[in-house]
Each structure stands twice: as C-alpha cells, then as structure tokens.
Amino acid sequence: MKTIAVLPAGSVSDEAARHLFRGEEINWKHHRLISDVFLSTVKGISDYSIIPIENTIEGSVSLHMDWLVHEVDIPIQAEWVYPSIQNLIGRQSELLNDNGEMDYSRITKVISHPVAIAQCLQFLRTHLPHAVTEHVSSTAEGVRIVQNNPNAGLAAIGTMTAAANEKLDVLASEITDHDNNYTRFLLVGSEPYTDRKSDKIKTSILITLPEDYPGALHQVLSAFAWRKINLTRIESRPTKKKLGNYYFFIDIDMALDTVLLPSAIQEIEAIGCQVRVLGSYPSFIEFKK
User: Fold this and answer.
1) End-to-end distance of the chain based on CA atoms, in angstroms?
2) Do residues 118 and 52 touch, judged by C-beta distance below 8 A?
3) Out of 50, 60, 151, 159, which residue is the most buried by the measure of CB atoms under 10 Å away?
4) For the chain, what is the radius of gyration of the CA atoms?
C-alpha cells in the first residue's frame, strides 16, 4: 500500500489526491504545513507528496516552487489538474436575522489559505466588504478554526468536503471569481508513477544562466525554437544568492528520452548554463468538474 503525504483532509489538495489515486487503497498522511508534506517524502515516511504548484487565477505558488528548488531534491513523477471550487462555510444559525434571512454583517472575519481568499475577492468585496481576512496554512485549517470557535463571527473559505467533515454549513457555494478555476498539482517522489498511463509526457527543467552573458536567455530559447520543441511554461524565480540572479523554470511538451530534447539541453549547457532536470512525467490534464 502506498503512503501519500498531503495537506489536511478536506483541502483541495486532499480532494485532488483522491482523484488521482481513485480506486486505490492509500495510507494518507495529512500535514498542516506544506513543508511537512515535502519532508515526509524526503525522510522516507511517505512514498509521494502532493504539491499544489499553479492556479488559474493566482498563477504559480511561489513558496512551493522555491521548496522544490532550494529545500528538497525529489523528482516530479506526475502532474494533473483539479477544479478549485471554493465555498463560504460557517454556521447558518449564527447568521439568521429576525426574519430568518442570512445576515452577512454578522461575519467579522473570513479565514482561509491566501490563494483561496485571492480566488474569491469579488465575492468578498460584494458581500463581506466589512470583514477582515486571516490567512492560514490551508483551506481545511480555516474550516477547522471556525468549527472550534462558535459565536465568534467567523466564516471560512473551503471545500464542501471540509464543511461536511466539520459538520458546518455551506453559506454560499462556488464563490470563486471565475468558473474555470483549476489548480495544477505535482506528484513528487523517488519512484516513477505507473498506476495510470498517459499519452502526454512532459519534462520540467531548471536553468541557471551564466553571469554577465548578454543574450544567454535568447540562446536558451533558440535551442528549443529551431528544433520546434514546444515550451508550455517559462517562469523566472530569484536564486536567493544575489540580487538580479534568476532561475528559469521551463516546462517542455516532450519526454526527456526523445532524440531532440537531450541535444537541446547539451547545447544550452555548452554556452555555460546549468541545467537541472526536475522530472519527466505523465501529464493528466482533465478540465472537468
């Protein structure tokens, strides 16, 4: 039986993990902090970790990307997307006025993960402009706090699963600003993921440019361009070593063991760039609710 490290039960990460491993018997290890999710696999406590890495609305999750680069060295074994459907969660009985109507003015604070709050700003501005927001480590953690603090004017943004787990009410459903709100997840671990097959294989690499090399990034991209290798994503992140020094994350729509990609990497290394392969893995992209 596989052991999988993931954020708390009822979080979007938890739902996404169960989607990938649907039908399988899994030993789930839930952790409050993403650092503990990573370290669980690094220390051999779990076989894989589930990492949310990118969102339709908020873009990349920078903290998680930095952990992949600076804190751990475990390869990506799969990627998939899962709908991030957020809801306003609390106790309906605490919000009903004398007419039996919902009175949002009784909510003084909304608690959730910062990415989830950012996904629901239009709803918050329209219905809860008076409420302060508080950031916690996961959406499930926010729901748990609301459960543990009745009659405190609290509400959370989270999943219906979390609301059911904590026996709370869904005060408003599907409150994200956009209907096509998806999160991309990575499965990281030392063993290849072989439970499901995909016709699409991607490769992720990290490139560090040589210092004081004019046109280096142009040459990097040219190595892919003339070979007609499709790049699905390129993003810069600071190396944390010197102001103005950056890594470049590049996702490539091609397996590492093809003929063209290794030669492109060799060309890039020949101009003095450092290349680190983060993984070559199956991609399961299913934009369905």
Assistant:
1) 28
2) no
3) 50
4) 21
Q: What are the φ and ψ backbone dihedral angles of 246, each rounded to 5 degrees?
A: -135, 150
Cα four-point dihedral sign 256, 259, 261, 266: positive
Angstrom distance (rounded) from CA 186 to CA 281: 10
Q: What is the DSSP string of 92-111?
A: GGGTB-TTS-B-GGG--EEE
Widest CA span of the chain, in angstroms? 74
Amino acid type, 100? G
Place of tokens 């290890």: 29
Report the percent of the chain where pLDDT is more than 70: 98
Query: Which DSSP symbol is given to 167?
Result: T
What are the DSSP calls for 265-276, one per residue?
HHHHHHTT-EEE
Going by the DSSP 8-state scheme, the letter that residue 23 receives in this structure is T
DSSP assignment, residue 181? -
Of 5, 199, 186, 201, nearest in space to 79 by CA: 186
